[in-house]
Amino acid sequence: MVKAGRLIDGRGGPPVSPVMLRIEGDRILDVGPSLAVPPGARVVDLGSATLLPGLIDLHTHLTDRFGVHWEQALTTTTPPEAALWGARNARDTLQAGFTTCRDMGPSWPYVDVALRDAIAQGAVPGPRLLVAGNYVSSTGGAGDARQFSIYVDVPIVRNLADGPEEITRAVRTNFKNGADFIKILATGAVLSKGIPPGQQQYSDAEILAAVIEANRWGRPVAAHAHGAQGIKAAIKAGVRTVDHGSYLDDEAVVLLQRSGRKTFYVPTLYTSDAILGAEGAPIPASEVERERQIRDVQFVGFRRALAAGIPIGFGTDSSVIPHGKNAHEMVLRVGLGESPMAAIVSATSLNAEILGWSDRVSSVEKGKLADLIAVSGDPLKDITEMERVRFVMKDGVVYKDELSGACP
Questions:
Q1: Which of 209, 253, 300, 367 is the residue whose CA sits 20 to 30 A from 273?
Q2: H-state helical runs in 196-249
Q3: Rounded to 5 degrees, what are φ and ψ at 120?
Q4: ∠ at Cα 361 (123, 217), nearest 5°?
Q5: How far is CA 347 from the centre of its chain?
Q6: Contact assessment for residue 119 and residue 112, using Cβ atoms and an 8 Å cutoff
Q7: For the segment 216-271, what is each residue's pLDDT rounded down to a tens digit?
Q8: What is the radius of gyration, based on Cα positions, of the chain?
Q9: pTM, two decimal places
Q10: 270-284: per-residue pLDDT in tens?
Q11: Strand ranges inside 255-362, DSSP E
């Protein structure tokens, strides 16, 4: 049993106060203002705290170490290092209240697959993961690992595919090696050399090839897309999410509306502060300049999406931002005009819909997995409360408890 002073259930309705939950194994059996306590049941009393569902982050890189640029990682580190840091980053992310994450591709391919499996098997604590395994990009595009020097190669990183046939092969290879979904880089990137982030790097036919093949496997595609043309090409191809979406324009908003909740916009706004504030790795001056040029555009695009009333998914792009600081994305979004409730719904029931997991996570109701977090105050009055999660339960297991006085 869990008791708390207030419940925000993740579906957008008014808070319930007080609340009790009956939990058995990994499931919520009952929810109400007052429930009978079965004989011998353990009661976790969280006092006046606000209880919420576990949060979802749709854009993480858990096996990448914060403070290490991806190019530096490929030339100075190893896949085992990435795995060990991934275990630490997964723990920090879980402790911050994120019980489910989508991992968007590691610097060292398929280390995220191993991390996902280790978490699922109980070897290390962390969010349940859906993983990309290895992102798919074009020659000279974002994340091309052969841009160091013509005399330097990282042969283990085979993420480049050009033309529909190579892209189809890359999709199949990623699924063969354990990926849950495909990440394709439709445009250039901020933290990379090569084609600029505002430019479409994959043709419409190439993006469509990825979607067709992934859908053949019954799985979705997430598109890294900053530039407007790349965003629109990705939406038209039928990707599940447009991540970053920096140059989101009016035409792209209309396309998202017409998609009928088939495609969703997932901004990552905190990255600007992290890059321009030098919070992380030493970043090449050219890439800092790319971020400087795109920062205000990102905020305009987000406000455009808000004004249109389209659903906005929640993602952060950790490790560009510090692992475990994911909830600061909510603070920035509320500062740009989103309501606190909408920000919470974005990171809970909306993200569950995007993942196709509405039947299992991110709302507090009968039959759902017992993923719960709690904060001391009321996040609807002060959204920064979400940065101070004090209780975390995943699958009915308590991983953090600073409220009840009991040891987890």
A1: 253
A2: 204-216, 228-237
A3: -60, -30
A4: 80
A5: 9
A6: no
A7: 999 999 999 999 999 999 999 999 999 999 999 999 999 999 999 999 999 999 99
A8: 21
A9: 0.96
A10: 999 888 886 555 788
A11: 264-266
